[in-house]
Amino acid sequence: MLRFRLPLLGALALTSIACGASPAPQADKQFPPAKNEPPVRTTGVWQPAAGLTQQPIWPGSPPDGTLNPQPPESVDTYQEPPEFGGKSYAVNDIAIPTMTVMPPKGRNTGTAVIVFPGGGFQKVFVTLEGTEICDWLVARGITCIVSKYRAPGGNDYWNAALRRQITPKIPRALQDAQRTIRLVRSKAKELGIDPNRIGVMGFSAGGYLVAQTSNILTPTYKPVDAIDSISSRPDFAVALYPGHICRDDGKTFDPKLPVIKTAPPTFIAQAWDDPTDPICNSLMYASALDKAGVSTEVHLFAKGGHAFGLRKRGQPVGEWPELVERWLNQIGMM
After folding, report:
1. What are the φ and ψ backbone dihedral angles of 20, each rounded to 5 degrees?
2. Mean pLDDT value of segment 188-199
3. How far apart, in Å, are the Cα atoms of 137 and each of 6, 104, 108, 233?
4. Among 292, 265, 284, 308, which Cα is nearest to 12's?
């Protein structure tokens, strides 16, 4: 059943305004976190905090390589206010996808969440929509896994030089997402989690990976080992300000995204004033899930913009983490 919550809004009559009246990009463009100066780029593989280890998700070279030959991995460092840790990181030119496991603090609920950060499939904002999200989840007894999937070109993305969308023939980011879910499920005993309580949470482009992994269960790559015989279906899904779903200025639902009746229970949240991904992404996806009979909860906020992550505390949109916690309790995942 579809449940809509519309803080500070009067009615769904605004749907046509959000989805069709103004031009909307087919998919989200690259977005930086709030910042006062350009990022500083350094060449080298991003490393998580001390005590955490990231591991490659493939036993050898990833299937299908990268979209184009690319330079070595690098990291953009953004200066942030002290309350946001002072710095924020985005990873560029990812050829070797990884996952970083962050164990729960205190009580272990047995639940795990794989987080897909955003970045327009051009880069991966690995702290703003990755480790910062995990810090919140692990404090609630949830094992959290940050996915660093292949980019750029892991899925359809905005090419600034050509000023148009590019849709690769091979969905490498989806390959990485499916593999990560399977790998985490294969390590359930080692990680101390229930293999039937593994969810996905994604932001912006990562929200599109949430929709894809929820509905595309057939492997998008040739199996490489026994792990690929394990299900990649998440047990629950959380999509924050997803992109790439509504196309043609909000008139068309992504033709490559099936919506199936066996998709997991889904939570969706977005702000109406999102300047990057129009709200029709959430509305169209929620409607399609509801028509398929998938339990779906939707929260739409009047204000919040894009890429708000956990950084809007004190504002209505900043309540989304508490709403997710209540929802997870309701569906028996906490």
Report:
1. -135, -20
2. 98
3. 25, 8, 11, 21
4. 284
First to last CA, the chain: 21
CA-to-CA dists, residue 165 to 144, 157, 171, 307, angstroms: 32, 5, 14, 20
Query: Alpha carbon 284 to chain centroid distance?
Result: 17
The sign of the CA dihedral 47, 208, 321, 235 is negative
| Model pLDDT for residues 60-113, shown as the tens digit of each residue | 999 999 999 999 999 999 998 887 778 899 999 999 999 999 999 999 999 999
Report the C-alpha gap between 197 and 189 in whole angstroms.
Answer: 12
Question: Which tokens belong to 207?
Answer: 């929200």
Q: What is d(CA 207, CA 149) in angstroms, rounded to the nearest whole number?
A: 13
d(CA 301, CA 8): 7
Task: Single out the residue of 282, 280, 278, 264 nearest to residue 306, CA to CA.
Answer: 278
Neighbours of 190 (CB within 10 A): 9
pLDDT band, very low/low/confident/very high, at 2 (cuts 50, 70, 90): low
Asked if the model's pLDDT at residue 22 lies above 60, the reply is no
The length of the chain is 334
Distances from the Cα of 292 to the Cαs of 99, 124, 215, 280, in angstroms? Answer: 31, 31, 11, 18
How remote is the C-alpha of 202 from its chain's centroid?
2
**Could you tell me the pTM of the whole model?**
0.90
Contacts of 185 (CB under 8 A, 6+ apart): 195, 198, 230, 231
Amino acid at 314: G
Under the banding of pLDDT at 50, 70 and 90, the label for residue 162 is confident
3-state secondary structure of 283: helix
